[in-house]
Design goal:
- Helices cover 33% and strands 11% of the residues.
- By secondary structure, the protein is of the alpha/beta class.
- It has one domain.
- Strand 2, helix 3 and strand 3 form a beta-alpha-beta unit.
């Protein structure tokens, strides 16, 4: 059974990822403060982090320059919002866990290292 996250949970996860991304973008004491130039993409998965934007913060404030959005949530407005923030937008298409497809084709489910279908 595949469970979809509620919108609130997805935004919460996205916020956690954004904060983690910001922390990682700061570098270590050996590297000094600031962005690490060898990392080209600093992104988060889970959609538009509206909680950050509603606070008046920008994605750049957290070192984020890319966002992955599930294809079901991809809209022109969201892409335009992220582009105005200077972010690259990547769409994620759920090809391996699509419930309706797997119902008709259970042999197409991804298989884990234990040989059992992955959720």
């Amino acid at each position: 059974m595949i469970r979809r996250s509620s919108p609130g949970r997805t935004v919460g996860i996205a916020t956690i990822l954004a904060l983690a991304s910001s922390w990682m973008a700061r570098g270590t004491a050996d590297e000094g403060p600031g962005a690490r130039s060898h990392i080209a993409i600093r992104g988060l998965y889970g959609g538009v982090p509206t909680q950050l934007l509603d606070r008046g913060r920008s994605l750049a404030d957290y070192g984020i320059n890319a966002v992955w959005i599930g294809s079901g949530a991809l809209t022109r407005e969201r892409v335009e919002l992220l582009r105005r923030q200077g972010a690259k937008v990547f769409a994620e298409f759920n090809t391996m866990h699509e419930v309706s497809f797997l119902k008709d084709h259970p042999d197409a489910a991804p298989v884990g290292p234990d040989g059992l279908p992955c959720p």
